[in-house]
Amino acid sequence: MEQRRFGATKRDVPVIGQGTWSIEKGARAKTIAALRRGFDLGATHVDTAEMYGSGAAEQVVAEAIHGRRDEVFLVSKVLPGNASRKGTIAACEQSLARLRTDRLDCYLLHWRGEHPLEDTVAAFEQLKKTGKILSWGVSNFDASDLEDVRKIAGAGQFVCNQVLYHLKQRAIEHAVIPWCEKHGVAVVAYSPLGNGGFPGPRTTGGRVLKDIADRHGATPHQVALRFLARRPTLFAIPKSSNPEHAAENAAAGDLKLSAAEVARIDKAFPRGTRPRDLPTE
């Protein structure tokens, strides 16, 4: 599994990780087996949040990482409604308890809310000083929001922006990715295979993916994931509750696409015009 430096951290993180949105809804034993299969194959970046299942997803992750905590780059998120200075610290402590760990490798603000960013940033920095988090970042932030955080925190203080990114939704390519590349911030793609709308083999884009996949002895899903992680700042966190699917996703981390193949995919899935608001679903 290819690894890359994760923003301003000193950690190398796999390009393909594992998401956990709604993962608590699956059969528990199978879901835990899927996460552990991903770990075995190098997909050790696992992302969760207090919002997912009102903490239930974090409890599933706790079982999956039991005995393997040091292998994992563990990320969770605070809800905007909890993101006051005191609320952020309390939310982090609750997440740590559900995850049965003493630290998060990265802690994110799930999206921008009503609490001042200054307060949330101050809480993140306090959590870093006490060792409860090792780094922090944001999620669902457009370029203007990212600039606001940079002005508050300073350069090199926040390490990532987690955003919606899949072949049919490439809005972040207009401003978010360029901003993050300029400032050394990692971009983590959530829902990288879409939400039930992955292009089928009868569509033009689907045929392009299948043709490229066949040339590599891969699957269209793997080709899509590798395309989304094609730039040095990009990472993807597909979700799977099935060990076989987790293995398929992880294998995308070793796939190499040529410039010509990237260009074919780019043409088949045009990014469109920049939307007024950054999409989140």
C-alpha geometry:
globular
Kindly state the number of beta strands: 9
Query: How many angstroms separate the termini?
Result: 28 Å
Assembly type of the chains comes to: single chain
Give a nutshell description of this structure.
By secondary structure, this protein is of the alpha/beta class.
Folded structure, characterized:
It is a single chain. This protein has helices spanning 28-40, 56-65, 85-99, 117-129, 143-153, 176-183, 204-216, 220-228, 243-251, 259-268; strands spanning 3-5, 12-14, 45-47, 73-78, 106-109, 136-139, 160-164, 186-190, 234-236. It has 281 residues and is α/β, with parallel strands linked by helices. The protein has one domain (3-268): Alpha-Beta Barrel (TIM Barrel). It has a seven-stranded parallel beta sheet with strand order 3-4-5-6-7-8-9. Strands 1-2 form a two-stranded antiparallel sheet. The two termini are 28 Å apart.
Produce the secondary structure layout.
Blueprint: E1 3-5, E2 12-14, H1 28-40, E3 45-47, H2 56-65, E4 73-78, H3 85-99, E5 106-109, H4 117-129, E6 136-139, H5 143-153, E7 160-164, H6 176-183, E8 186-190, H7 204-216, H8 220-228, E9 234-236, H9 243-251, H10 259-268
Parallel strand pairs: 3-4, 4-5, 5-6, 6-7, 7-8, 8-9
Antiparallel strand pairs: 1-2
Helix pairs in contact: 1-2, 1-9, 3-4, 7-8, 7-10
Q: Keywords, please?
A:
two-stranded antiparallel ribbon; 13% strand; globular; 40% helix; alpha/beta; 10 helices; 281 residues; TIM Barrel; seven-stranded parallel beta sheet
